[in-house]
Design brief:
Elements: E1 14-18, E2 22-27, E3 30-38, E4 43-44, E5 47-48, H1 56-71, E6 79-81, H2 95-98, E7 102-106, E8 109-110, E9 113-120, H3 123-129, E10 134-135, E11 138-139, E12 149-155, E13 158-159, H4 172-179, H5 181-204, E14 207-219, E15 222-226, E16 235-239, H6 255-262, H7 277-295
Antiparallel strand pairs: 1-2, 2-3, 3-7, 4-5, 6-7, 8-14, 9-12, 9-13, 9-14, 10-11, 14-15, 14-16
Length: 298
């Protein structure tokens, strides 16, 4: 396996934020732009693993670029270019490290909420449903099975927690209290339209998008699609040919890693347990199959 990129260091740029996966840099002389670099770090249960997945950052970048192009008729996105040769000159000394895992993007003000769309009942939503059919203000049909498709996709926002903390699901009314009724309705409409178009396309490629998380920001008063989009980090991807409701599903995302971690005597808090080589390799293969299926490349 190639050596994973776990961190970046570009002294001529200004590190603004180091997230679970991405390093964000300000560019001297370009106050309206940011450089977004996807590392090979991977997190689970909001804990960054000490071991990384080689090539993961390139997969996330390739998929995001694909979806930005496909979905640009629904909402503007923050991408300026992913052509490293077109980056500002101050970035060029780092061209080799940036190739294939970076984007030059518009600087926006990120929303203070996470924008989640669910087409199928799974994960935390399924856990909550098993206790009460009213989840985040939604009265769900009784008798649903795990992984069952909702009659219509649901927009289910959550709080945006600090690094290391957990996001919390909130109701649409709570979201309206945070951003205002009109803005909340606009956000929900955009995210549902994005999900529906992407989910319909993915089905033609043999993948069910069970749920996904979008990031939106504001630029001059308008909403912009930002960060990554519809990757195995931010979505549940299930193979159509193996789908069967009533149980958890095989997937092309980091659920495989979560399933492994759930077998350990680990309390989902730092320090992270070491990952065996076969878990790293199998996770890598799932990410690569996701990008191959969706884009038709590789």
């Amino acid at each position: 396996m190639t050596t994973p990129v776990t961190t970046t260091d570009f002294p001529m740029l200004v590190l603004k934020h180091r997230g679970k996966v991405r390093d964000m840099y300000a560019i001297p002389g370009h106050d309206d732009k940011l450089l977004m670099v996807a590392t090979d770090r991977i997190s689970a249960y909001d804990v960054i693993m000490d071991d990384a997945i080689p090539g993961k950052g390139a997969v996330l970048t390739e998929l995001s670029l694909f979806w930005f192009d496909l979905l640009q008729d629904i909402v503007e996105n923050h991408l300026i270019t992913a052509d490293v040769a077109a980056y500002p000159s101050v970035c060029q000394p780092y061209a080799e490290q940036l190739q294939g895992r970076s984007m030059l993007v518009k600087k926006t003000r990120p929303l203070s909420i996470e924008c989640i769309v669910r087409g199928y009942i799974s994960g935390s939503f399924w856990s909550a449903y098993t206790k009460d059919p009213v989840v985040c203000g939604f009265q769900l049909p009784r008798g649903m099975q795990e992984s069952e498709k909702f009659p219509e996709p649901l927009f289910t926002p959550s709080t945006k927690a600090d690094l290391g903390d957990h996001d919390e699901n909130i109701s649409l009314q709570q979201m309206m209290d945070i951003v205002g009724t009109k803005r909340a309705e606009e956000i929900a409409a955009i995210c549902l339209a994005l999900y529906k178009k992407a989910a319909d396309y993915a089905l033609t490629r043999g993948i069910i998008i069970a749920d996904t998380k979008f990031e939106l920001g504001e630029l001059d008063g308008r909403l912009i699609l930002i960060d990554e989009v519809l990757t195995p980090d931010s979505s549940r991807f299930w193979p159509v040919d193996l789908y069967k409701s009533g149980k958890s599903q095989p997937s092309f995302d980091k659920q495989f890693l979560r399933d492994y971690l759930s077998t350990l005597d680990w309390h989902k808090t730092p320090p992270a347990p070491p990952l065996p080589k076969d878990i790293i390799e199998k996770t890598k293969q799932r990410y690569e199959e996701a990008v191959q299926r969706i884009t038709g490349k590789r």
